[in-house]
What does this fold into?
Amino acid sequence: GAGVSQSPRYKVAKRGQDVALRCDPISGHVSLFWYQQALGQGPEFLTYFQNEAQLDKSGLPSDRFFAERPEGSVSTLKIQRTQQEDSAVYLCASSLRVNAEKLFFGSGTQLSVL
Amino acid sequence: DAKTTQPNSMESNEEEPVHLPCNHSTISGTDYIHWYRQLPSQGPEYVIHGLTSNVNNRMASLAIAEDRKSSTLILHRATLRDAAVYYCILSFTQGGSEKLVFGKGTKLTVNP
It folds into this structure.
């Protein structure tokens, strides 16, 4: 596709449910980032992949959050046993090279945990 | 993390230039200055970035102070479509990954 695609666009989960959020980066992009954006705040870094390798997961808020990119293209962010504080927009971004020089963001997945 | 300071909000009139300021007094020699903007219900969009010299592209200009402790994003003729939150960001490398750390940004309102 022409841009970064994220699905689903909206997700409503009951507290305690597991969710999986998908990101299709721009084809050929080496770097992939996940960000979390709470209402009225700027995006906060979660994790970074260089191809299939997860080089930085320092921003993941707890061990309930898990991300993977097994073939170096599509990535999935999984949240286990969701809690209300997980409600946010989850943004995926990719860049062509091994740096954050120019990121292309998807429109995000808005997660609401009830 | 090197931090940036921006005004919470600014207003402009359509077809007038807009100067969005950013302070980054703790910037280090290798930190790039990036600007992104975010329209409602969309992900951030790249605007421009630079290291030391002023930069121009089709969207905007970036003026960087000589001591690099501040910068200004210049929109030469604001349109209604430029209404967005503008983020000034310093990238830094930690643990093998280069990160962009966003602040709260400046909400730009453009009046017709």
About this structure: The mean pLDDT of chain B is 92. Residues 10 and 108 of chain B are 5 Å apart (CA to CA). The radius of gyration of chain B is 14 Å. The first strand of chain B starts at residue 9 and ends at 13.
